[in-house]
Amino acid sequence: MYVLSYFIGGVAKIISFLLNLYTWIIIIRVILSWIGIDPWHPHPFVRFVYAVTEPVLRPVRRLIKPIGYLDLSPLIVLILIYFLQLWLVPVLMRLSIELSS
Q1: Which long-range contacts (CB under 8 A, 24 or more apart) does 39-46 make?
Q2: What pLDDT score was predicted for residue 90?
Q3: Are 6 and 101 in contact (CB under 8 A)?
Q4: What are the distances in angstroms from CA 48 to CA 4, 26, 54, 89?
Q5: What is the pLDDT of residues 8-62, one digit of tens each?
């Protein structure tokens, strides 16, 4: 059971890291949109940020339409990420602890 416990604990830490990383990528995308950088800008970093975030933001944007020029989809996704960090990661860590004892 220790192997499974360590595996679940490791998965929880990886999920936590990836959620934190994705949070920063969304924040960078918001800043890029405030600056007015085009999604088709030739710089590879700009294209990467838009390519990674658009598949998640597009469905949220379909559900919640922009209010004027204000797009709330990044805020909704950040709230969902925060919820996953507060709920999913601790549940996995607790499961890991329970399996090790």
Answers
A1: none
A2: 95
A3: no
A4: 35, 11, 10, 26
A5: 999 999 999 999 999 999 999 999 999 988 888 888 999 999 999 999 999 999 9
Residue 4 has which token pair?
Answer: 């499974």
C-alpha to C-alpha distance for 27 and 30, rounded to whole angstroms: 5
Residues 6 or more apart in contact with residue 6 via CB below 8 angstroms? 96, 100
What pLDDT is attached to residue 80?
A: 96
CA trace torsion 28, 34, 35, 39 (10° rounding): 70
What is residue 1's DSSP assignment?
-
